[in-house]
TrEMBL record:
One of its GO terms (molecular function) is acyltransferase activity, transferring groups other than amino-acyl groups. InterPro entries: Acyl_CoA_acyltransferase, GNAT_dom. This is GNAT family N-acetyltransferase. Gene3D superfamilies: 3.40.630.30. Residues 15-173 form the N-acetyltransferase domain. It comes from Schaedlerella arabinosiphila. Keywords: Transferase. The keyword Nucleotide-binding does not apply.
Length: 176
């Protein structure tokens, strides 16, 4: 049985992720060419390193210390998914809050955890004054299918820091 709860800053450490499998075999991705989105062959394996986990822990701690939201799914005591939303509206009239991470352990994908985490992020964002979630989403076809299923569309306005940090990501929004 999956339990969901908000994480606290003191829980965030590398050990929390000991049973989390961040592994994804990607074969096809969406790429924007001549102002049109196309599916292209772009094979690679996404697998976090220790330094990636250290950076993630640091980012999630910062999210919480700045008043943001970090929510997680557990199977027993094992972390199997998490989502984070930053505090602080941006985008002018768009009234965005930034969904900065949403990950489900490879062994639990397809079980509904991602949907539950996304819905929790939407609820939190709405309660905190947002009209839309902003997502700089991985361009893998599977990732894009998930976000489309969640009601996401191409963002009306881009957050430049995300575009620069991940030029292949697709900038999305979801109305709350």
């Amino acid at each position: 049985m999956i339990q969901y709860r908000t994480l606290s800053e003191h829980e965030l450490c590398r050990g929390l992720f000991r049973d989390f499998i961040r592994h994804q075999v990607v074969t096809k991705c969406w790429r924007k060419e001549h102002n049109e989105w196309l599916i292209k062959d772009a094979p690679f394996i996404d697998n976090w390193t220790e330094s990636d986990y250290d950076f993630l822990v640091s980012c999630l701690k910062h999210t919480l210390s700045a008043g943001g939201f970090v929510y997680a799914a557990f199977c027993g005591n094992a972390l199997k998914g998490f989502v984070s939303v930053e505090s602080g509206l941006f985008g002018g009239a768009q009234k965005y809050l930034d969904l900065t991470s949403l990950h489900v352990s490879e062994d639990m994908r397809g079980s509904g955890i991602g949907t539950a985490l996304f819905c929790a992020a939407k609820d939190w964002a709405k309660k905190n004054g947002a009209e839309k979630l902003y997502i700089s989403a991985h361009s893998a076809v599977e990732t894009q299918v998930f976000y489309k299923k969640m009601g996401c569309v191409d963002a009306e306005s881009y957050q430049q820091k995300h575009v620069e940090a991940e030029p292949f990501d697709r900038q999305l929004e979801c109305r709350l």
